[in-house]
Structures are given as C-alpha cells and as structure tokens.
Amino acid sequence: MAQATGPLAQTLSELTGEGEIYERLQNGAVRCHACGHRCFIPEGRPGICKVRFNDGGVLRVPWGYVGALQCDPVEKKPFFHALPGAPALSFGMLGCDFHCGYCQNWITSQAIRDPKAVSLPERVSPSDLVSLARKHRAPILASTYNEPLITSEWAVAVFKEAVAAGLVCAYISNGNGTEQVLDYIRPYVRLYKVDLKSFRDRSYRELGGTLKNVLDTIALLKAKDFWVEIVTLLIPGFNDADEEITDIARFLAGVSADIPWHVTAFHKDYRMTDPDDTPPSTLLRAAAIGRQEGLRFVYAGNIPGAVGDFENTRCPGCAAILVERTGYRILDYRVTRGGTCPDCGTAIPGLWRGGAYHARTAAPGAAAAPDGRNTPERVSR
Length: 381
Description:
The chain is α/β, with parallel strands linked by helices and 381 residues long. The relative contact order is 0.12. The protein is built from nine helices and 21 strands. It folds into two domains: 56 residues; 294 residues, Aldolase class I (TIM Barrel, Alpha-Beta Barrel). The strands form six sheets. It has an eight-stranded mixed sheet with strand order 8-9-11-12-13-14-15-16. Strands 1-6-5 form a three-stranded antiparallel sheet.
C-alpha cells in the first residue's frame, strides 16, 4: 500500500502529531492499535485508514483540524438516553477504516480514498471547540462524521479541555475498536454510539471489517462503563431478514437488556442506489423483534410520525411515557432529577438532566416487561 498522494493528502500529512496508541517494531515498522485492523505499518506507508502513517518509525496521526462541524440535537447522533433535547456540538475529521457503499458521510469519511470526497480541513484548537460549545450552549461535544477511533489522539486533546469545562464527550463510531484505544479514551469519553451494521461476518468483510471485532468492542464498552447506544441501519436485502434481526437483538440483550437499540431506515446514498428505501413496516417489525428478545428500550428512527410509540421512552417498570418525541423534538420529559420514573420510582438507565446516571437497571438477558441524517453542516464561529 503506497502512501496516498495528491493535494489533500499532502495537506493532511502536515496536519499531524505523533500518535500515542501504537508500538514501535523492528526495522522502523510500527503497529497501530487505534482500530481493530491493528495495522502493521512499514516505514513510509499509511494504515488502512489512509490518515495514520509511519514517518521514520514514528506514527503520525491527524491533528489540529476539523473536516465538518455542526450543532444539533443529541437525538440526531442518535442518543435517546443522554440529556434528551440537549444540543451537541459535533466535529469530524477525515478518513475511515471502513468503506461502506451507503455511507451518509462519505465526503469526510472517504477523503483520500475517493477523489470525489472534497471536504477541506479547517484548522482549530481544542479551546476553539470548547468555546464554540459554550457559545451554542451545547453540554455535549461529539466526535463524528468520520471514524473517531482513528483520530483518537486529537479527540482526547479536545476532550481533556472539554471535560475540564464540564462538558460531556461522545463518540459516534463503527465500533471497530481495541481494548487499547478504549482504555485510552475512557477517562474523557462518556457516551459511545456504535453502528452494528449486520450480524453476518461476510457482510462486514464487504464493508472493510469483521463482525467479531465489533461484537467484542460492544461487550468491552459495557464492561468499561461507557454509556452505549446501538444503531442498526436496516437495508432491504442486506440485513433486514427476521433471522438476522433476531440475532442482533438476542446478542444485545445478552450483553445488557438496558442497551437502547435504534433501528433506522436506509435511503439511497453514495454508491448504494439499488435497494429500495426502507419502509416503516420493516422498522416496526424489527422493533417488535427487539422487544420480544428482551431489550427494554427499542427505538425506530428517522421516519418521524410513522413508527408509533417506538419514538418514545417508556418506563420498564410501569410503562409510563417518560420522554415523548417526534423526530428530534422532545414533546414531554418526565424523568426525575434522580434519573427515575416519577410514577413508580424505577431507575431509568442513561444520563439524565440534573446529572443522574444509571448504567444498568436489569441483569443481562432479563425479560422486557428522528427525522433525518447525521450529516454535517457548518456552524457559525
């Protein structure tokens, strides 16, 4: 794999710092541990992501810029159990360790790999991003739009200042992690959303990863007490069969019945224009399967008004509506400052207004009693 070339690649090679999530090997090679590929990178070569590269036996990593910046509701990430209704300042860099043909954020994620991806980097400092979050009254700062794992050193530099300023930090990720990178970001990242794209390894290999590594990462995230929410984009003919949906729901319930699972609708994008857009009936079918398999919080997203009660958060104890939604709009919010149901006192897992945090209320395997796309726009600076 030759070093990527071209004007953008040259610019990005200058916007770098020395990495921290790697080891030095013999003959000037390095081993990167930022994502599940664990790339062996000889001198002068990049990793699979194209943006982490070996320069004289030193791993250079993205630093000091953003490729996308937006402030929008946290429900758009989506997180439904993390400060509902709060704005999240979201920043992205460039590059990804996957190459999904339906990527909504391909302009940023496939930079260098795809010559049509033309998002340009803009220099910023960590204090710039923290100041922007304060300006927009956003209590959440999120790394998204490309794969944040491969830019973790920069995220940590930003998040150190953000945490000191009282902000909550989040990753919106494909979940292709390693224990090393999770331990590295854990002091600063509280919220972690994983795209669980399929439950078939052959499908994951088409996208550039492996199923086992994503499943292992989800289990590690819960074990390390990140707040985790899972999204599965249901694509007709790719991952929408009842058997596969059941396998996903059963796995998640086995990790924790309290993991919120969002099933969302595919729309034609990037290089995948053959399948039909996902109908609401598929989301409703998948959501029903999720509940049957023991998940307490299942949501059907991005077709607001067409999925009934699956936009709302209900108490698993008494079934009272605690957060009523349509799309990104919060219509009613009833979770107490202590993070409980006001009617029956059941602790509701998540991070709630007032600072209450419950990581788990149900044992693994316990039985169960938004409009739009996460795509970037510029925000005013």
